[in-house]
Write a structure and sequence with these properties.
single chain; 290 residues; TIM Barrel
Length: 290
Amino acid sequence: MSGELTRRRFLAGGMAAGASILSARIQGAGQQAAATSAAPDQANWIVDSHAHLKHGDAARTEYSPEVIVDTMDKVGIAKSVVFAMSTTTQRSIEMAERAVKKYPDRLIPYVYALPHYERPVIKEIERALSGGLFRGIKIHVGECTLADYVIDPVLKLAGKRNVPCLIDLGGRYADAKRMAAAFPETKLIVAHMGRYLSTDRNLIDQFIGLAENCANVLLDVSGVVVLEKIVEAVRKIGSTRLIWGTDGPHEKPDTVGFARTELNKITQLDLPEQDKRNILRQSIVGLLRL
């Protein structure tokens, strides 16, 4: 789409506008984190609720926990929710376990829900959640049908275990509406406020409306480029139901610049500071009971 605002274009404008405001605070937080490699006090936390050990891009790009934590240190992110996709559920569990073993105070794992032809993976997901290490479930429409006969057992399990499901719906509002109504006890985090890099204001409005009508729906603001819709969502559903994430790491322009751009998106919004704090940490801290 010729009018679509790309991340590269947003970076060029957003970084220039926000650098003078944030550079000292971000640099100081990053230096402190780098020196200690441990999370700062909870009052100062910034939590990235959407970070990939393995992406769903064409290259199935993987990032080591060292790269993720180094990026966090330089940006001032205290903790990150991590998961791997574009792989089996079992391998996603193993990748996340290894990452969290290296950085138990910095990384929080989600398990990836992907059906398997050879065996039911619901048991693998349940075992991961029952151990207490994994705090949520990641679902992606690009690799998993949202048909009720496939996805409903996962949503039911999430409600039973009281963990959220972060779902990339690819704009499929009807599926989101069905799931939210069918599983009111399950917290559904709608990735990208409906669709990644969407400029379709009507579609975004539908997902904000869904959150208005369904108390179990929260909105992830990673990859959102129509920034006024974040402000509108705060007004309509409250900032405690919006959750910040980078959807990183990404190399354009580099992992640190990418993450800072996503952070700048929130810090530059015309919102009260408490709302910004909710989006950047309190919403996910409360949801995951950190």
